[in-house]
Design a protein that fits this description.
Layout lengths: L3 H33 L9 E3 L7 E2 L7 E11 L10 E12 L5 E11 L6 H21 L16 E6 L12 H20 L3 E7 L5 H7 L2 H5 L9 H5 L7 E2 L3 E3 L10 E7 L4 E7 H4 L2 H17 L5 H10 L3 H17 L11 H7 L4
Parallel strand pairs: 3-6, 6-7
Antiparallel strand pairs: 1-9, 2-8, 3-4, 4-5, 7-11, 8-10, 9-10, 10-11
Helix pairs in contact: 2-3
């Protein structure tokens, strides 16, 4: 069991040093950013338009719109629990905000996977591919609530996913598998492009360091031998973004997707926290669509009291709790027992059984 007293002692020992380092680095990085950002120019690794410290004020969207959000979770294989199979569960919500009538539709879609050797990194990659495919199907469906007794006007429709659009999962598996899952992911992005889906990824409390890395490439930072190991982009962004505003769009050149699918990102200060918004290039290229997208995100944040209400509700549809895991493992075991299966892959280990009834 965890010894809380010893952990507390360690926390008390290291916290002052870490806090002092973080505060010092944050202050130094903000000062350097304020000095250099207005004159920074794009380089081979990072592109943007205008000044790097541009801040644009945002307003919540006031007209009718539709927002679709998807999220996912999983039950990993657990050999000790007697299951080599796993489940990916996708949750969704479709919110239609009409001028006089609104509607909400929620759903969850579990899929069973029986591959015996899939590791967590590959499972996560497959879940992200499935999330985007699921979101595309919902966003491309004919939906929406027309205004009553008014001319038919097409309302904007946004697809919002939880987390980044950059597909980092492909780097966490072997190269061949990574190529296959990345191709599958890009195929879904291509469908969104062809369907003109207004797509964005929303990351709360981002840990990204793209702007930190950009700053460290500047001559002044090199002369100071700065490292900034304890801070993230959010520590810089707070120096130039007021509440309800966003930065300019940046592109990391490491992102070598097809031109229309390259991922752009910006930072937004919602008034509650700094968040990272990622969009494909085809969305970023349409200034009017981008303006509507950001305004709709701000409205969702306001409705969710600091976090988009659509993503919060999609999470509730997708979430898998411990009781669900136990029930799934039991379900798999019972199905195999009923068919007379004696494979060790579908029986709980002695280690698992010993945890249920400790000897001491």
């Amino acid at each position: 069991m965890l010894n809380y007293t010893k952990v507390l002692e360690e926390c008390r020992r290291v916290t002052p040093t870490v806090l002092q380092t973080t505060q010092h680095e944050g202050a130094a990085a903000r000062l350097l950013w304020q000095k250099l950002a207005p004159e920074m120019v794009p380089d081979k690794q990072m592109h943007w338009k205008g000044a790097a410290n541009t801040a644009s004020t945002l307003q919540a969207y006031q007209e009718p719109y539709t927002v679709i959000a998807v999220d996912g979770s999983q039950i990993y294989p657990d050999r000790h629990a007697g299951s080599s199979w796993y489940v990916i569960n996708l949750g969704s919500i479709v919110l239609n905000y009409g001028s006089q009538i609104s509607s909400v539709v929620t759903d969850s879609q579990p899929t069973l996977h029986t591959a015996l050797n899939d590791q967590p990194a590959l499972i996560n990659a497959r879940r992200n591919v499935q999330e985007l495919a699921y979101g595309y199907e919902l966003a491309s469906a004919k939906s929406g609530v027309p205004a009553v007794n008014t001319p038919k006007v097409e309302t904007p429709k946004v697809l919002l996913v939880d987390g980044p659009l950059l597909f980092w999962d492909a780097e966490l598996v072997d190269p061949l598998t990574g190529t296959l899952v990345l191709d599958a992911y890009l195929a879904q992005l291509q469908r969104c492009y062809e369907g003109k889906i207004l797509l964005a990824g929303y990351t709360s409390m981002p840990r990204s360091r793209d702007l930190i890395t950009l700053l460290l490439r500047q001559e002044d930072a090199r002369q100071q031998a700065a490292t900034y190991d304890q801070i993230t982009d959010a520590d810089i962004v707070t120096s130039f973004l007021p509440a309800h505003a966003c930065s300019t769009l940046f592109t990391n050149a490491v992102n070598n997707y097809p031109a229309a699918l390259q991922i752009r990102f910006l930072y937004m200060y919602t008034g509650h926290e700094v968040v990272r918004i990622e969009v494909p290039a085809y969305v970023a290229a349409d200034e009017q669509a981008m303006a509507k997208l950001l305004a709709i995100i701000m409205d969702q944040v306001a409705k969710g009291l600091g976090y988009p209400v659509c993503l919060a509700e999609a999470h509730e549809q997708a979430v898998i709790r411990e009781a669900d895991r136990v029930a799934f493992y039991h379900m798999v075991q019972e199905q195999h027992r009923s068919l007379g299966t004696v494979s060790s892959s579908f029986q709980p280990s002695r280690k698992s059984l010993s945890k249920r009834s400790p000897a001491v």
